[in-house]
Amino acid sequence: MAFLIILITCFVIILATSQPCQTPDDFVAATSPGHIIIGGLFAIHEKMLSSEDSPRRPQIQKCVGFEISVFLQTLAMIHSIEMINNSTLLSGVKLGYEIYDTCTEVTVAMAATLRFLSKFNWSRETVEFKCDYSSYMPRVKAVIGSGYSEITMAVSRMLNLQLMPQVGYESTAEILSDKIRFPSFLRTVPSDFHQIKAMAHLIQKSGWNWIGIITTDDDYGRLALNTFIIQAEANNVCIAFKEVLPAFLSDNTIEVRINQTLEKIILEAQLLGVLKNVTFTDGWNSFHFDAHGDLNTGYDVVLWKEINGHMTVTKMAEYDLQNDVFIIPDQETKNEFRNLKQIQSKCSKECSPGQMKKTTRSQHICCYECENCPENHYSNQTDMPHCLLCNNKTHWAPVRSTMCFEKEVEYLNWNDSLAILVLILSLLGIIFVLVVGIIFTRNLNTPVVKSAGGLRVCYVILLCHFLNFASTSFFIGEPQDFTCKTRQTLFGVSFTLCISCILTKSLKILLAFSFDPKLQKFLKCLYRPILIIFTCTGIQVVICTLWLIFAAPTVEVNVSLPRVIILECGEGSILAFGTMLGYIAILAFICFIFAFKGRKLPENYNEAKFITFGLLIYFIAWITFIPIYATTFGKYVPAVEIIVILISNYGILCCTFFPKCYVIICKQEINTKSAFLKIIYSYSFHSVSSIALSPASLDSMSSNITMTNPSSSGKSATRQKKKDLQAQAFAHICRENATSVSKTLPRKRISSI
C-alpha cells in the first residue's frame, strides 16, 4: 500500500511539474494535510523554459529537465514524514507537507516562499503586512530546502521576516553561517569554509602551488571562489587560471531589505530554538548544529581515476573539519595519498634551504627565481619567501647558509704567535734589567756608577724599566676589568717616574759642566731632585686616579666584525688616555732639551748624548704609534701598544745603561780616578779655549787690566793682555774642577761628577 502511494505521488509530481502553472494548486508539486505543515523546496527540474529571451508577462513558465536525484530526495522527505506519522513520536499530532519544485530558479522559489508565509487557515492566500509577527500564524511552520545556495539565500531573507526555521540539505555557501543576516537558517552539511580549507590543505599536502579553478557563475560559485583565493594565498598557492561556467539560473536577482529583528519570540522562533539544540545520531556518529547553524559533519576525499577506459571514483580519506586533519583508513590508501606528491603542479622549481624566492615580473607569486641567501642570512626550509637575518651580535652565516653559526670570541691569547714573541722580548728586557742591576751593584764605588747618579737613582730607573716590561703582560689574555685598569695605569706611572729620574740626571750633568755663571745660577735654583721626581710623578698619579674614578677602562665586546667577537679593553675616555700619554711626552721633551744641551760633554762619561738618542727612539716610536693605533682593528690592537712600549723601553734602557756596562766590563782601565781626572782636565782645557766671554765680562777684565797697567798702550799690549786673561781663566777653571773632583770622588755614592 505504501509503495502504491509513493508511485501515485510520483506520478502526480511528474505531471504537475511538467505542465505550466494555471492555478496556485497547480504550482504545488506534492502536498498532504496535517496539524503542522512542513514546507519543502526541491529543484526537481533543471530550469524553467521561457518562449522569449526576456519574459514580458509576470507568470510562472513550464519547467524542463527532470532531475532524478533531486526527485529521490523529495521522496525521502515524504517518506520521513510518513514514518513519523506512523510512529508514536508525535502522539495525536499529524505532520503534513507542502513541497514545491523550484525549477532551479530563484523567482519560482520566491513564489513558493510567499505561499509559505501566507496566513494559516485563511481563505485567501495572502501575506499580511505587520510590524510585529509575534502572533502571526503562517501556512507552514518550517521549510526544508532548497538545494542551491543562491536560492536558499533569497528564500532565507524572506523567511527571516517571521523567523521561520529553514533547514538546508545542500546549501554550503559560507555566508549562510552569518547569523546576523540569516538568523533562522540551519543546514545539515558543513560550510564551504571547511570544504575550501580542506581543499587548500590537500593541495598544500600534495606539494602543489600552481593550479586552476573552475566554478559556476552564481552566488555559490563566486563566494566559494573568493574564499578559496584567500585560502590559497595564505598557503602560497597561485591561481594559474579561473574559469567561470554559467549556472542553470536566470540572471535575475532579488534584493530584499530585512526589517529589524523582532524582539518577541513567535512560535516559529521557539521551533528554531529547539532545532538549534537538537542532537541526533545515525547509529555510529552524533550530529548537532553549531553556533552558526552548521552541522558538524566532514567531507569524503575521493579520487577520480580512469581504469581501462572507465572512470572510477574511490574514497581515499575523510576530512575532519573540527581538527583540520585527513583520516586515512588503511596503509594502501595512505600510499595512494602520498602518490599525489609525485604529480608536479608548480610554476617554478622549489628553492632549496639556503636560498630564497625572488619574485619575477609575473603577477603570480608562485613564479619566481631562486637566489642564494647573502652573508649573515639563512633559510632552513624550501621555498622560503625571504632569508632570515642572523643575530649579528652573536652569530654569522656564509653565503647560501642553512643555519647561523656562533661567532668565535677572539682576543690576544697567550698561545698566539705574536703574543709569544712580545712576551719573549719582555722577559729578555727583564733579564737585561736584572743583569744591569747586578753589574752596577758589584761596581758601586767606581766613577762610572757614581757618574750615573748613584746606585739609588739607578735602582729606581731600573725598577721603572722592570715595571714597564712587566706591564706588557696585562695586555695579553682574556680582558678583565682589573687588567684593563691596571695596564695603562702601571705603564703611565712607571714610565713617568723613569723620565722624571732621567730629567734630574740631565739637569745635574748640565749643571756640573756648565761654565756660564748665569746658567749655573739658574740650574742650581732649579735642581731639586726629590722635589722634581715627586712632583712630576705625582701629577701623573693624579691624572690616572681621575681617569679611574670618572671614566675607567672596562671590558668591551666588539661585535662589528662579521665572523668574530673581539673582547677588548675600552679605554673609557680617549681624552684621559691622550692626557696620560701627552704628559709623558711633555716631560720627555723637556728632558730631551736639557740632554741635547749637554751632548758635547766628556765622551766616556757623557750620559746626555745617550739620553738624547734614547728619547729620540721614544719619540719616533710613539709618533708612529698614533696612526697605527687609530687604524688597527681587531685582536692585535693591544699588540701595537705592547710593541711601542717595548721599543721605547729598550731604547732608553740601552742608551742609558749599556754604554756604562761596556765601560765597566770592557774598558776597566778608564774606570779609575786618575783616568777620570785626566779626561776632566782635558775637557776643561778644550772648553776654556773655546769660551766666548760676554761683553760685560770683557769690559770688566779690560778695566782691571787698564787700571793695573795705565802706562801701556798699542795693539801689541792689548793682544798680550787678552792672552794673559785667557790663561788666568783656564787656570781658575782647572783649579775649580780639580777641587770639585777631589771632593767628589770620596763622597757618598749618590754624588755625581
From TrEMBL:
UniProt domain G-protein coupled receptors family 3 profile: residue ranges: 418-674
UniProt-listed InterPro entries: ANF_lig-bd_rcpt (IPR001828), GPCR_3 (IPR000337), GPCR_3_9-Cys_dom (IPR011500), GPCR_3_9-Cys_sf (IPR038550), GPCR_3_C (IPR017978), GPCR_3_Ca_sens_rcpt-rel (IPR000068), GPCR_3_CS (IPR017979), Peripla_BP_I (IPR028082)
Membrane-traversing stretches: 418-441, 453-477, 489-513, 525-552, 572-596, 608-630, 636-658
Cellular component terms per the entry's GO annotation: plasma membrane
Main location: membrane
Subunit description: Homodimer; disulfide-linked.
Protein name, UniProt field: G-protein coupled receptor family C group 6 member A
